[in-house]
Amino acid sequence: AAKTGGRNRVVDYTSTLNASTAERLELRRSLAGALAAGQFFLLFQPRVRASDGAVASAEVLLRWQHPVKGRIPPDRFIPIAEEAGLIGEIGLWVLREAMQQVSHWRMQANPPLTRLSVNLSPLQLAHRDFLPEVEALAAEFPQARGAIELEITEGAFFRDIEGCVHKLGRLRAMGFDIALDDFGVGYSAMSYLSTLPLDTLKIDKSFVQAFGRQPTAYAIASAIVALATALDKRVVAEGVETEAQAAMLRQLGVDELQGYLYSEPVPVAALTQPPDGAREPASVDS
Ligand code: C2E
Ligand code: MG
Ligand code: MG
Ligand code: MG
């Protein structure tokens, strides 16, 4: 395409633009009926404790199985759902599924997991129906209390930081933990981080994956851990793919690690139960 003449290039460029706009419109149309049609499902990516590798929690990741186009990644359909005003409904479904799942696990003798993290869109959080809807879910699933962490991004604070801080405080009072996702790539000023009601900072995977290639990446990760420690917050690193990255993160004092090194996002059935009595100390008598 680079070799074509000026006129042709313009034509190509325009048709590409049109194609992607048409594609977006089409996705937007099919997205409207996707929830009712049962086209969404959830995958779970374990998060392990840095100290001993024990599975501490898992992140819930939404998937859309389009009947014709196949699997569409969330980075493509979430922005469209936000634009189309569908993110509230979809996001609430995700949270409800997660709370139901964790409640179910908490009633089992040897559950594979007892905690989950759920991603929230800034638009979802900003909507006035969000808190009452979550309150209703919390009442419906009392067993899930203390088991769910909500992951927000710095974009949530962009327009209305005070409103956001108030909502996060209410969510914490309902028993939810709050994590700041993709930390380090947004617009956060370090100075206001201390005033936000947060439990966890998630170091963005771009830093982890640049370890060994960009000296600044390790320096930034190190600064994030120092900040989190000073503010008494848990630190999680995402996108951990190699043992070398894991070793560096452990060295830095990161609490939990998440990434393909441990597991890809998997269906619920693939989350293996710990063996019977795994949490009990070994005993010769029994
Ligand atoms: P995120 O919340 O930062 O999630 C982490 C993403 O990194 C996931 O992509 C995960 O599959 C991917 N990942 C995990 N380990 C590795 C690794 O070792 N290497 C690499 N290269 N990637 C890894 P995924 O599932 O495609 O989700 C992308 C984004 O879509 C999420 O980023 C989140 O922002 C959004 N998302 C996913 N599910 C939901 C949801 O239920 N609601 C909302 N609002 N957003 C969601
Ligand atoms: Mg996340
Ligand atoms: Mg992230
Ligand atoms: Mg991300």
Automatic annotation (TrEMBL):
Domain of life: Bacteria
Every EAL domain range: 24-279
Coiled-coil region(s): none
The protein's name: Diguanylate cyclase (GGDEF)-like protein
Organism from which the protein derives: Pseudacidovorax intermedius
Lineage: Bacteria, Pseudomonadati, Pseudomonadota, Betaproteobacteria, Burkholderiales
